[in-house]
Amino acid sequence: MKKILIVLGTVGAFTDVALAQSNVTLYGLVDLSYQHLSSGDSSPLAGQSLNRLADGSAFGPGSRWGLRVQEDLGNGLKANVVLESGFAGDTGVSANGGRLFGRQAFISLASATLGEIRLGRQYAFHDEVTVLNNPYGNSLVTNPAAVANTFATGSIPLFIDAPRIDNTVQYISPTFYGLRLQAMVAAGEGLVDRYQGLKGTFANGPLNLALSYEQSKARVATPGVGAAGDAVNKIWEVGGNYDFGRFKLLGGYQNGKDLTTGSAGIITAPATSGGIGTQIATLTLPGLAGPATRLKAYTVGALMPVGAGTVALNYTRTKFENAAGSNRTLGRIGLVGTYSLSKLTTVYTGIGVSNGDLKDFINEKRVFQLGLRKTF
Amino acid sequence: MKKILIVLGTVGAFTDVALAQSNVTLYGLVDLSYQHLSSGDSSPLAGQSLNRLADGSAFGPGSRWGLRVQEDLGNGLKANVVLESGFAGDTGVSANGGRLFGRQAFISLASATLGEIRLGRQYAFHDEVTVLNNPYGNSLVTNPAAVANTFATGSIPLFIDAPRIDNTVQYISPTFYGLRLQAMVAAGEGLVDRYQGLKGTFANGPLNLALSYEQSKARVATPGVGAAGDAVNKIWEVGGNYDFGRFKLLGGYQNGKDLTTGSAGIITAPATSGGIGTQIATLTLPGLAGPATRLKAYTVGALMPVGAGTVALNYTRTKFENAAGSNRTLGRIGLVGTYSLSKLTTVYTGIGVSNGDLKDFINEKRVFQLGLRKTF
Amino acid sequence: MKKILIVLGTVGAFTDVALAQSNVTLYGLVDLSYQHLSSGDSSPLAGQSLNRLADGSAFGPGSRWGLRVQEDLGNGLKANVVLESGFAGDTGVSANGGRLFGRQAFISLASATLGEIRLGRQYAFHDEVTVLNNPYGNSLVTNPAAVANTFATGSIPLFIDAPRIDNTVQYISPTFYGLRLQAMVAAGEGLVDRYQGLKGTFANGPLNLALSYEQSKARVATPGVGAAGDAVNKIWEVGGNYDFGRFKLLGGYQNGKDLTTGSAGIITAPATSGGIGTQIATLTLPGLAGPATRLKAYTVGALMPVGAGTVALNYTRTKFENAAGSNRTLGRIGLVGTYSLSKLTTVYTGIGVSNGDLKDFINEKRVFQLGLRKTF
Q1: Which residues from chain B sit within 8 angstroms of residue A32, using beta carbons?
Q2: Most CB contacts within 10 A, which of A255, B168, B191, C307?
Q3: Other Cβ atoms within 10 Å of C75 Cβ, number
Q4: pTM for the complete prediction?
Q5: What are the start-end ranges of the H helices in chain C?
């Protein structure tokens, strides 16, 4: 997936290169699939089916190109830059609300002994945990964070997933005996909720575990949830996987409380992804009085290598609760097969079938996909 | 025009490179010209003249940068990605309605014996045929698809040209004795007309020929043209050129029937280039009752190499008809000279003069241009 | 700051390379700083303080990536392309109003003996002069062109700075005995004011001097300033620096007359930066009747190398006058320290303190910043 551009410093002559050399890597991924949707009877498509050519951002890895810069400063210190630009491969349109580097944009200083400080637009911790929870790392129909289009709300995720946070300062510890800690804050800057999160990961041979907790400080009061300054959108998530060699088991659990739409009324285009409340704004659900303020979701799955490919299966189920304790459920079983033409090029096919109270309210009640993915 | 970035896979070590190497080519073109327009008396400029610095997208090749990725998968199989981004060189603004990779975005698998499958945003077939029809391949004032600004309608092309289609699946056959076939479909995805097209090309030594037929299935009914589901915007085009050595002759003919504005009323920004009806939306013409629903256009031209440059001349004439059979005409004669400073850098000058019923309704009644183009 | 991508022409074989080789350099800079603002009592923040992670575009060098293309055409002739894309490193959002290459986009032919012709979007001359006037070249709190957010007007700069002009044709002379002349024009193209400017620079050992004069021809009449066709927004600026070895002294003066909002009423998104009147549109100031039509501003400063870093101090003061001769003042003292971890990576800290009549109307009455910058 990564390529090194051979890059030489131009400062004077080759004798200077050691002092002023950065490796610049231009990398990317394009994923497109044919998708056939069978919609629920109460969905916007009203039971009809739809054929589409869809970018990976719908049930796959979103297409992207990016620049990764690394400079060795000596004494175990490195400076890094990541600029990652998302786009829809079927239309060429920028993803992430039209941002140039909407997937990731950060600069960091990393010490081998003291850890790393990162500044910029970065992944939310629950999104990083979700990657461990399912067979293909937040892609294909096995992704519990993939969004389905619903009748009443526009869209609904099985796992809450506001993948990226603006204006973040993150600290990443060195790894001690497989354990690594991360802490991240983002001042609201007067425009959106203040964000803060903690995450721990443990990796030891075949075992990968992760735990995250995140919350926002509300910028404005939210009726039924709390006052300005209250902690809202409290999300904790645990997940991981274990590789038995012949196959890998994966699973995770997410719990969201005091869910709100974040800084209601002031969310504008560049700020919409600024808080973790973004996707939560959609949780007005058919048959549920008022918005869902609580979510409990789990996912379990397995992945098995088969020759040059893999086969994987998982199941995700979510319960959305409103303030009065009433709830609605949605689930999805996903079955996927992949075949790698090389380390960089893969064809895949998958099917996802929904169940639960809300299955007839979404366009993607049943999804079939057949796709091609190429990294560079 | 193409450059190879030397790129190495980082997967593990150099011994892996053979398995996981993609060539990534960063390429581009910038074209800017000084243009002097003499407008028609009934045009928006009301007979006045205008000086401007214009990007190639006005009577030239639009400025662009792009990434071309190619991976040899063995057994005659290749995986390709093309991501091409258009912009205005005079202002730095994105072209193609602000899309990041609005010129082209596709992924493909190509077999030496079975042909190629391409998924994404690709050129419409009539645009590819038009490239053969005129001396400088859809650039400079000899381009029959270049758009002129008109009094009543905003803009008008001599050849219909909706250059790119979203969400396409294209099959390109191998070449048999110089003959190659292409077929392309794009599901409307519930938002725009469904597109389908066929194209054949024949190349043999000095001779290049191409023929295309395209049509849409209307998503909604269009008054005076047809019901939802009817075939509309039927466009066929033939064209080619013959290189006599001392000079090259070029010509083409385009015929459009049942022209509509496509999915009237639902064309939104990302979708406007999704169907082939896009530019047809403008064909409300001065002196013609109702929109033009039929177009017949031809172009003839010649190109002669002269030292390190070329001289070329062509004439294009179009007849626009409404449903009642009334018509209006517009033509343009173009004369261009180019001089190549290298294989990658060219200066050029040209003049275009319009005639026909509509000549006094367009800003570009007469156009002079003097420009510089650099590829990389 | 610059890297050469090793690039080979693909035209045929290696024997062709000499004829068709362009060097393509992919370069960039990311700058992010933690900033603490103490606002004035009458500012939008009403005396409160604000913490933010800010891109270099606020009191620093704006983050960017770009492509620089150079081709040697022989006989002392070179063809060049610069495409430079700005973005906010804290959010990944495009800078310069969403333009793809909004910082710079031009193509040029440069002769060693005859000078250079550049076409495209280029820096205004007063912006180039301002670079010489202050310790860190239009970055950090010592930048006199940095914009502060104000109560009545949205924003206010100490030096007028409309950094870039669209549609420009610039001539740059060769250097004679350290002296170089530049002339630039941009036709208004019927949309914005016509621009014209002259600039001279002199460089000799430790001395750098620059002088510029720019004005627009108003496209429409401006009440209180003049008729359509009148010269408006007349800005001249002088500045320079002298390097004594132990330290460098820097200073500059800017004078603006007949300031208007440019083509009032027709300024649309892509055109807003098209004239030099852009930022001047904001000069409606608290306590001043009517807009300021005249500005006089100076800046003085010093920069001292200290080990692997620098320390610098400067002071800038501006007087804004309305047509009646009443005026309001604003000033800022800036103190900055930088430390270079390498030639490409720098940490810095700075403080800016405002004074003058307007100091309590701006958010950035006092600014502290602590940042990290990496070039590549």
Answers
A1: 106-107, 119-120
A2: B168
A3: 9
A4: 0.92
A5: 125-133
